[in-house]
Amino acid sequence: MEATTNQNWFEKNESTATLWSPIEELYNDRKEWTLKPDSYLDDDTSITKVAKDPAGLYSCSRSEVEQAIEQLTAQKNLESTMKAHGDWRAGQQSGRTRKIGAATQNLLCTIGNFLQTFSGIAEIVKSVDQQIGGLAYGTIMLLVSVAVNKQKHDDWREAVLKELSYAFPRLSTLQNVRPGKTLQLLIMDVFRLSIVFCRETVQYFAGSSLRRLLKSLSEKDLEKTTSDLRIKLSEIHKECEITMLQLLFKQQERIEELGKCIRKLDRTGRNTNDIVNGLEARAKDKSLLRLMERLQLETEDVDLEAIANQVEGILDVQFADQRHNHKAVCRMSSSILKQEPVFNTWYQQTKSGVLLIGGNNYFDHSDVELNWLSWASVWAARSLDGGGCPLVFFCQTTYNMNRRARCTFHQIVDSLIYQLAAMHPDGLQAQQKTISKARKSTAWNNVNRTVAFEARTRLLIELMASFVRGTIFTIIIDRLDRSCGGEDPNEDIDALQDSMSAILDLVRDDGTPKPLVKVLLAMDDVAARKLAKNFDWAKTSGLAIKVGWNQDLEDS
């Protein structure tokens, strides 16, 4: 396959006429030089047959020259073998024959190497002008034909050919160089000098010693051409190095500039992200504030961390007083919770269910409003922080709570709705529409407590459905027994049962798809026992009960 270049190094037009004119002079006199045998051939040489067809000779390609070298090498090998065999049969020594055959093979190999490296420059020129490319290959073809019939061995000229075969720049190097005018001129000079060198070598090899003497074609003529070629080839290598270094420098500049652009874009991107995140955060805060107003919640009602700290604080104070009076009184801890089988089963399970726990403090003070199981609510809420979706509500956040300060089940659900919305900011806009629609419904504001509670639990389920499938929702309601049902204290028990029924609706399997919801209810033992008795049937619907979980003395 012919060697090709990735780009044209030259153009032939009026502006490049001076660049091409020396080569064109050689091309124009090709026939005259080739058809004038006495210019390089003796009368008895057999090379004249090669030169009789200049048109065919100077239209050959690199592959044709390579093929000719292979054929002539094989032919000379055969002739050398037959000659040696004849000498042997005649009883003559064949050493000289073998030496001549080996020398011819070495010379053809050297010319082949010269052709291979010179073709890099030749193909560049040929890509612009096929005829001038053919001039180069035709001259080498003639050199090959003369070389195999040369009259004497000449180590110096073979050495020059071998040297030049290593001096030419490789085509792969030239393909990656974008040439300037200096490099273009050098390439054309080397191309021209190579043809001149081949012609002079043809004349030297073909002529006899006497003819060379008469023509005054001495080694000095070849030495001058060879010297010029060496100089030009050296300059080409230097120019290629300079060009490549300039290219590398430009590439380095481009890389540095690109790096600056990337860093600038990165800073711009970060600034843009900060702006977008800031806008999204403000939009979320604004939406949550609007939702808080619709649900009639106060800021202090939704700061769950602060509420948990507040509850834990009053628990510490209350039960520290107990321990002051009796140091052996137990304090709730995570180890106690995990050792309780019913609680641990609920905590570890991955299915919907409600756990009702109830117990009494060790000291049965009538004025004590707090319950030691509230520590379980605080611990459970904090252990779930950052995992799943914990929804927490503390019904008792102060030491003493009068009736007016008590919350209603409506307020509990409203807080849970807000917490759900805050956990899902991407769907907040859609959720607000759902919430607004539910709050305007007849069922939401129905005087029938059961109907109103069911409307709220349905909304909770609908909001949970907007989360990723498989999300676990854990609802912790501490001291549900401290919520109230209305102005009449006697309504508290009925309201507590209605609240419990609504909570069970969250986990009860009624044949419709529901999210995975786990509920923890911590309250006083008396209230827990009443609910356990009234909802004993719900044990088959996901209700687990642990009553009588009283505060005892520590084991001594």
CATH homologous superfamily (4th level) name of the largest domain: P-loop containing nucleotide triphosphate hydrolases
N- to C-terminal distance: 98 Å
CATH class of the largest domain: Alpha Beta
What about the largest sheet?
Answer: 5 strands, parallel
What is the tally of beta strands? 5
Overall radius of gyration: 52 Å
Structural class: mainly alpha
SSE order, one letter for each helix or strand:
HHHHHHHHHHHHHHHHEHEHHHEHEHE
Please tell me the CATH architecture of the largest domain by its name.
Answer: 3-Layer(aba) Sandwich
At CATH level 3, the topology of the largest domain is Rossmann fold
Shape: rod-shaped
| Percent of residues in helices | 55-70%
Strand content: 5-15%
Uncertain stretches:
1-6
Structurally, the number of domains stands at: 2
Average pLDDT, to the nearest integer? 78
Features:
DUF7708; disordered N terminus; mainly alpha
3D architecture notes:
With 556 residues, this protein is mainly alpha-helical. The protein has 2 domains: 14-243, no CATH class; 304-546, P-loop containing nucleotide triphosphate hydrolases (Rossmann fold, 3-Layer(aba) Sandwich), CATH 3.40.50. Helix content is 63%, strand content 6%. The chain has 22 helices and 5 strands. The chain has helices spanning 17-28, 30-34, 48-51, 54-57, 62-89, 95-126, 130-147, 155-167, 171-175, 181-206, 209-214, 219-294, 299-302, 304-325, 334-339, 341-348, 374-383, 409-423, 428-439, 449-464, 491-507, 525-534, and strands spanning 353-359, 389-394, 472-478, 516-524, 543-546. It has a 5-stranded parallel β-sheet, with helices on both faces. Helix 12 (219-294) packs parallel to helix 19. The longest helix has 76 residues, at 219-294.
